[in-house]
Design brief:
Blueprint (H helix, E strand, L loop, with lengths): L1 E5 L3 H12 L2 E3 L2 E3 L5 E11 L2 E10 L3 E6 L5 E11 L3 E5 L2 E5 L2 E10 L4 E5 L4 E10 H7 L2 H13 L1 E4 L3 H11 L8 H22 L11 H15 L9 H8 L3 H12 L3 H19 L4 H7 L5 H12 L10
Parallel strand pairs: 1-6
Antiparallel strand pairs: 2-3, 4-5, 5-12, 6-11, 7-10, 7-12, 8-9, 8-11, 10-13
Helix pairs in contact: 4-5
Length: about 325
């Protein structure tokens, strides 16, 4: 099945996608036919010129998305977590990339005036968020520095960013929201705003022209794999540069250089920062005591845990609820 389209706001996009599938739309959400997919696709209007689409489904059939260049400039931001036992192929203009089987995170920013095709095979799991910023919204809301980034996008048509741990957490909160949540639309929209805010913050802090599109596709995928290892190792000590170098098939110096260039900090600093933010989440959730949170994150010595926490947040774990 192939869905051919030009980018439009995601409310209309969802309706067009449903028509192509022969499916219905209810409350801006597609009711998939079982032979196509199991799960949901739902669109959200945030404000004039700013819309989004949340996808969380497993395909029971091959689907090809073919996007032809839009008539006007706009920015499409894709934040996705794919899992497949086969492969995923995507084309942007004259560039073709094949992603081999496994689990992959992707954060890509594209010019709506480009050709883009994405091929998913049967059984692919698609979890993620698409954001569409129309030109009028950009001109109204972006500062001069942010406009420089979007003007740069007009020249290169697309670039990749790394999917940070914070962005993953926000996206997972959207995708794993309980079905009986009391205010689902507000909950989801607030996190979409936060994701866009963090992304714009990255644009303002760093030179986009020196970011990941200058890294080879293989190195990009490898660095994202290393980042995933670091953010799933919270209950253990830091894996160590030597081990990470072996996993990445890079020299230690190359790995350290590319990681810092791509994520803005060193490997251990990134590991520790996200480890402490996970600790903060555990404590504020009320599910764990401070001692339990420390142990859960691999600390046997509570003093060491408290010192690391204070270094990151300028307060002790015990002071969180008093701030």
């Amino acid at each position: 099945m192939e869905f051919i389209f030009k980018q439009s706001d995601y409310i209309n996009w969802t309706n067009d996608f449903a028509i192509a599938l022969g499916s219905e739309v209810k409350n801006n959400s597609i009711l998939f036919s079982p032979h196509i997919a199991v799960g949901t696709t739902q669109s959200f209007f945030l404000e004039d010129g700013f819309s989004a689409c949340v996808n969380n489904y497993s395909l029971n059939n091959e689907v090809i998305f073919t996007r032809h260049p839009a008539d006007q400039f706009g920015v499409i931001i894709y934040l996705y977590h794919f899992h497949t036992s086969n492969s995923i192929e995507y084309k942007i203009d004259n560039t073709t990339v094949n992603v081999v089987d496994g689990t992959h995170y992707a954060l890509q920013i594209t010019n709506a005036q480009t050709f883009h095709q994405l091929k998913f095979t049967k059984s692919t799991i698609v979890r993620g968020l698409s954001i569409y910023l129309e030109n009028d919204w950009i001109q109204k809301n972006a500062s001069n520095r942010a406009l420089d980034v979007f003007n740069y996008l007009k020249q290169v048509n697309y670039f990749q960013q790394f999917f940070s741990a914070k962005q993953k957490r926000l996206m997972d909160e959207i995708l794993d929201m309980p079905e009986n949540h009391s205010y689902p639309e507000l909950y989801i929209k607030s996190r979409i705003y936060r994701i866009l805010d963090k992304l714009m913050e990255t644009f303002l802090q760093r030179d986009i022209s020196e970011l990941p599109e200058r890294i080879s596709e293989d190195d990009f995928q490898t660095l994202q794999k290393i980042e995933t290892i670091l953010t799933k190792s919270y209950d253990k000590s830091f894996p160590g540069i030597e081990k990470l170098s072996r996993i990445s098939f890079m020299s230690e110096s190359k790995l350290k250089k590319l990681f810092k260039q791509s994520f803005g900090m060193g490997l251990f600093e990134y590991f520790q920062k996200n480890r402490m933010h996970k600790a903060k989440e555990h404590i504020l959730s009320g599910k764990y005591t401070i001692t339990e949170a420390g142990i859960k994150l691999g600390y046997q010595n509570l003093s060491n845990f408290s010192a690391a926490f204070r270094k990151e947040f300028q307060c002790l774990p015990s002071e969180l609820n008093t701030l």
